[in-house]
């Protein structure tokens, strides 16, 4: 079901009136349509199948030598994402680190980011978002293990209520062989190494 931008624009106009504003003043005249467009983008993942980007696989079981079959994890670090908290409809954004242990097939690295894009483009909570990404990868690829770490900043925590502007939230979802304590520690170590390399080479991170 597509986002109903016409209705969103109408409701946004009502919202402006409800907060005591004049939706016809110059600065707000086009706001309902702008909000509708933003909502269509932010919630484009509703109704989409997060496994769809994983259906085009690359068979690595027929390499020139047996050692071409992957034995270790594939880890993509620092995938930026943004979503909307379903409790207050305020944004949260951060970085994801996604790893999986392939079976006989792998996917293009961008496919992992696309799974995250689909799952995050809907009203979410961070804890569920990581689990949905892990489930999609495990199921679609028959992966031997999956590890998903999300590190995000929530505007509902930073700008309202407790008002903790420096707080960030880290969640982990793990499946199969990457769910063991040793495997989790190994994945975390790779992520830390990436952060250290950035600091050494002067690559700017999220908070630079």
From TrEMBL:
<feature type="domain" description="GTP cyclohydrolase I">
    <location>
        <begin position="9"/>
        <end position="188"/>
    </location>
</feature>
<keyword id="KW-0554">One-carbon metabolism</keyword>
<dbReference type="GO" id="GO:0008270">
    <property type="term" value="F:zinc ion binding"/>
</dbReference>
<keyword id="KW-0378">Hydrolase</keyword>
<comment type="subunit">
    <text>Homopolymer.</text>
</comment>
<dbReference type="GO" id="GO:0006730">
    <property type="term" value="P:one-carbon metabolic process"/>
</dbReference>
<dbReference type="GO" id="GO:0046654">
    <property type="term" value="P:tetrahydrofolate biosynthetic process"/>
</dbReference>
<dbReference type="Pfam" id="PF01227">
    <property type="entry name" value="GTP_cyclohydroI"/>
</dbReference>
<protein>
    <recommendedName>
        <fullName>GTP cyclohydrolase 1</fullName>
        <ecNumber>3.5.4.16</ecNumber>
    </recommendedName>
</protein>
<dbReference type="InterPro" id="IPR043133">
    <property type="entry name" value="GTP-CH-I_C/QueF"/>
</dbReference>
<feature type="binding site">
    <location>
        <position position="85"/>
    </location>
    <ligand>
        <name>Zn(2+)</name>
    </ligand>
</feature>
<feature type="binding site">
    <location>
        <position position="88"/>
    </location>
    <ligand>
        <name>Zn(2+)</name>
    </ligand>
</feature>
<dbReference type="GO" id="GO:0006729">
    <property type="term" value="P:tetrahydrobiopterin biosynthetic process"/>
</dbReference>
<keyword id="KW-0547">Nucleotide-binding</keyword>
<dbReference type="InterPro" id="IPR020602">
    <property type="entry name" value="GTP_CycHdrlase_I_dom"/>
</dbReference>
<feature type="binding site">
    <location>
        <position position="156"/>
    </location>
    <ligand>
        <name>Zn(2+)</name>
    </ligand>
</feature>
<keyword id="KW-0342">GTP-binding</keyword>
<dbReference type="GO" id="GO:0005525">
    <property type="term" value="F:GTP binding"/>
</dbReference>
<dbReference type="InterPro" id="IPR043134">
    <property type="entry name" value="GTP-CH-I_N"/>
</dbReference>
<comment type="pathway">
    <text>Cofactor biosynthesis; 7,8-dihydroneopterin triphosphate biosynthesis; 7,8-dihydroneopterin triphosphate from GTP: step 1/1.</text>
</comment>
<keyword id="KW-0479">Metal-binding</keyword>
<dbReference type="GO" id="GO:0005737">
    <property type="term" value="C:cytoplasm"/>
</dbReference>
<dbReference type="GO" id="GO:0003934">
    <property type="term" value="F:GTP cyclohydrolase I activity"/>
</dbReference>
<dbReference type="InterPro" id="IPR001474">
    <property type="entry name" value="GTP_CycHdrlase_I"/>
</dbReference>
<comment type="similarity">
    <text>Belongs to the GTP cyclohydrolase I family.</text>
</comment>
<keyword id="KW-0862">Zinc</keyword>
């Amino acid at each position: 079901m597509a986002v109903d931008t016409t209705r969103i624009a109408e409701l946004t106009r009502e919202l402006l009136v409800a907060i005591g504003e004049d939706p016809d003043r110059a600065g707000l005249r086009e706001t309902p349509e702008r909000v509708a467009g933003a909502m269509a983008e932010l919630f484009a993942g509703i109704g989409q199948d997060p496994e769809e980007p994983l259906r085009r696989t690359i068979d690595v079981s027929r390499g020139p030598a047996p050692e071409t079959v992957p034995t270790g994890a594939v880890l993509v670090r620092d995938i930026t994402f943004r979503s909307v908290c379903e409790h207050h409809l305020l944004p949260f954004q951060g970085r994801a680190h996604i790893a999986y242990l392939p079976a006989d097939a792998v996917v293009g690295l961008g496919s992992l980011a696309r799974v995250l894009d689909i799952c995050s483009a809907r009203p979410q909570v961070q804890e569920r978002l990581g689990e949905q990404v892990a489930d999609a990868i495990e199921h679609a690829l028959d992966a031997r293990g999956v590890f998903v770490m999300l590190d995000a900043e929530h505007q509902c925590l930073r700008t309202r209520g407790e008002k903790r502007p420096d707080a960030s939230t880290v969640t982990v979802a793990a499946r199969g062989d990457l769910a063991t304590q040793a495997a989790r520690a190994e994945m975390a170590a790779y992520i830390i190494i990436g952060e250290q390399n950035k600091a050494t080479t002067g690559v700017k991170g999220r908070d630079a």
